[in-house]
Amino acid sequence: MTLTGVPTGTEYVRRQNTGLVLRSLRSHGPATRTELARRTGLAKATVGTIVAELEAARAVTQDATVSSGRGRPGRPVTLTGESILGLGLEVNVDYVAAVALDLAGKVRVVETRPVATAGTPPSTAELISMATDIRTTLMREGHTVVGATVAVPGLVAHDNRTVSWAPNLGWDGRHLAEELEEAFGGGCPTTIDNDANCAALAEAAHGVTTDVSHSLYITGTIGIGAGIVQDGRLIRGGAGFAGEVGHMPIGNPKRVCGCGRKGCWEASVGLRAMLNAVDMEEENTPLQTATTVANRAARDAGMRDALAALGHDLGTGLATLAAVLDPAAIVLGGYFVPLGAYIVPAAGEVLAERLPSASIHLPQIRLSSLGIHAAALGAAEDALADVYAGTLAL
Ligand SMILES: [Zn+2]
Fold first, then answer.
1. Do the first three CATH levels of 84-198+375-389 and 211-369 match, i.e. the same topology?
2. Which one of 72, 149, 347, 389 has the fewest CB atoms closer than 10 angstroms to its CB?
3. CA–centroid distance, residue 261 to ligand 1 (Å)
C-alpha cells in the first residue's frame, strides 16, 4: 500500500468510490454487491470492480453464496482487513502507549510502557523505540501498517505534523513525525494530533458517543482540553487549536494557573485543583489518584462537599461550551471518571440552570468508558482515516 500525491480524473473518482464502499461496510455491516450498489448509489459493475480490488488487497471477504429468498442469490461482502492496521501512539507525561486497530475496527495490539525515569516525561527515543518494536512485530506476522498517528498533550498545528506547544512534555516535538517516519523506514506516513482530539474520536467510534453525531470530550488531567466531534470528524478550527478550553477565564479569578495567568478554568477544575480541594497527594496516574480520592470520599462528607463544589465550577465551563457548540453529549475523561458520582450531579445542575436552551435540549453528561488507552485508540482510528476517506490507495 502506498501513499501517493493527489490523483486526478478517473483515479480520484475510483478512490472516492472505494472509500464510499468501505465506509458503507463499516457503518452498516456486510452486504451483497447489489445492496452495496443501492446503499452507495454506485453502478453494480463499479461496486463489483471495487470489491474485487478490495478482496485482492485483503480488506474484504465474500462469504459463500446465500439465497436471498427471491431472485438471484448474493454473496455478502464483509469488511475483514485483519492484516491492514493503523497504529495509534500516545506520549504522555508518565507513559507511552500504543494501540493497533484493524480495518474492521478490532483492536490487535495494546501496549503501555511507563517512563524510563520516574518524574521525567518520556523522550522521543522511548516513543520511537516502542513504535518500531510494535511495527516490526506486526510486519513479521504479515500485517501492513498503513499509517501511524501520535497523540500528544499539547497544541498541534494544522499540518498535523508540528507540535507547537507541549509544556508538560518539556521537549521540542517539531520533527517528531519525520523522526518516526525515518525510524519506520519510509513506509508508514505519520501524523500528530492533540490527545483530547484523539480521545474524542475514540469515544465517537468505540466508546460512549457512538449513538450521537455531535459530541464534546473533556480531558481530566492536570490540564483540561476538549475534542469536538461532528459526524465522525473533528472540528479543528482555523489554526488547528480548537478545544484549548483549559485557559478560558471562567475559573476562580484568584487562582493562579500553570500558564501564569489567573482565573483559568483548569486552575479550578484540573487534577491539581481537585487534589488541593480535598487535601490529598498525587499518585502515579490521574486514574489511580482519583480512585483513591473516590474511596475516601465514600466515607467523608466534607470531601464530598469539596468535590461537589468542583463539579459546580466544572458545570459553569460546560454551560459556556454547550452554549457555543450545542453538543448532544458531553464526555468527561481522565480523573473525572472515578469521581463521576461526586462531580457530575453538581455539574449537571449548573448546566441545566445556566444553559439558555436547557429546557429544549440538555446535553447529557457521560463518563468515558475507554480508560487509559482512549487517546491511543483514537490515534489508531485517525491512522486509518485516509483509507476510509479513499485518499490512501490499498
Ligand atoms: Zn492558564
1. yes
2. 72
3. 5
pTM: 0.89
Using the mean position of ligand 1's atoms as its centre, give its distance from the Cα of residue 260 in Å.
6
Nearest to 100 by CA among 63, 141, 71: 141
Architecture of domain 211-369: 2-Layer Sandwich (3.30)
User: Does residue 376 contact residue 90 with C-beta atoms inside 8 Å?
Assistant: yes
How do residues 84-136 score in pLDDT, each as one tens digit?
999 999 998 878 999 999 999 999 999 998 887 777 888 889 999 999 999 99
List 31's β-bridge partners, or say none. 77
In tens, the pLDDT along 21-31 reads 999 998 889 99
How far apart are the CA of 241 and the centre of ligand 1, in A?
15
Query: Ligand 1: distance of its center to the CA of 269 in Å?
Result: 11
| C-alpha 154 – ligand 1 centre gap (Å) | 13
Residues surrounding ion ligand 1 at CB below 5 Å: 247, 257, 259, 261, 264
Query: What gap in Å lies between CA 227 and CA 203, rounded to an integer?
Result: 10
Is 193:382 a contact under the CB 8 Å cutoff? yes
